[in-house]
Amino acid sequence: MAPCSRGAVTAELAVGVLAVVALLGVLLTALSAAIMQLQVEEAVRGAAREIARGESPETATALAKRIAGDAVIITVGVDGSTASVAARMQVPGPLAIVGGVVAQATASVRLESAP
């Protein structure tokens, strides 16, 4: 082995490990974002169902927070015979925070009329 090529394998291995760690970080952030998105969608669906049944916005918000967690921000709007629910939540993790990855969803329902 030539004296000038000593340490080249170590440097290449270090760069390779760094690339694998970076790729793993991106993949874990994407997986976390997908899971958060599903939770937020389920939360707005549940909250919209509660409002359609005649429950208060506070009850619907409590249900959404129970499904998606306390970090979710819920917005409820009622306009005549239609209600809409929007939710937004920051995806956890260092790459997601730096990249500004946010899970968000909306749902609209027609309010049920009283019997």
TrEMBL record:
Database matches in InterPro entries: Rv3655c/TadE (IPR049790)
Source species of the chain: Sinomonas humi
Top-level taxonomic group: Bacteria
Protein name in UniProt: Pilus assembly protein TadE
NCBIfam families: TadE_Rv3655c
